[in-house]
Amino acid sequence: MGAEPKKLVEPKELVNLYLDICEGIILKLTFDKSSSDISNQYLFFLSLEQSLNYLADDVFSILNIEDPSFGLKNYLSKWDVLSNEPSIKNIIIKELTHDGFLNDIKTTQTKLNNPIDETIITSNDSLNLKKFILILDNYKRFMFLLRKTIEEC
């Protein structure tokens, strides 16, 4: 039969690639409700999800956890599985709660998918650059803490 396929890029490099894409997209966001800006907002979250997915894959491979279906799960399900690992449990569970950035991603995506009703007198929390930057900064902090903890263990 054929030769075994080689991995050309490691998950750690893909994490950083998608993170760079997110940072590039943030520079283009204007929140002017144009179709290109809305597309960029969706691309931001798609890139962020891919980065989180590859980070989960990288952590999974380092910790040698037994779960044959891990690669088939979405990024949130992967983080749920990883949250059971004793050495990194506290770091991940904090981000899965209502105060964590993983929850912020879900709620912000919901707002993106369900635009704000401007006929309502009381204002809803709108999407803005500050929210996107906060999510990205919290993700970087999470990634740094997670990698540092894994290296020390």
Features:
globular, 153 residues, mainly alpha
Fold topology:
Layout: H1 11-26, H2 35-63, H3 75-82, H4 89-96, H5 101-113, H6 129-152
Helix pairs in contact: 1-2, 1-6, 2-3, 2-6, 5-6
General description of the model:
The protein is mainly alpha-helical and 153 residues long. The chain has one domain (11-115, 123-152). It has 6 helices and no strands. It has helices spanning 11-26, 35-63, 75-82, 89-96, 101-113, 129-152. The relative contact order is 0.13. The mean pLDDT is 89.
Can you summarize this structure?
The chain is mainly α.
How far from one another are the termini? 40 Å
SSE order: HHHHHH
Radius of gyration over all CA atoms, rounded: 17 Å
Number of strands: 0
Number of helices: 6
Per DSSP, what share of the residues sits in E-state strands of 2 or more residues? under 5%
Mean pLDDT: 89
Relative helix content: 55-70%
Which shape, going by the Cα principal axes? globular
Q: How many domains make up the 3D coordinates?
A: 1
> Which structural category fits the helices and strands?
mainly alpha
Largest sheet: none
Low-confidence regions: none
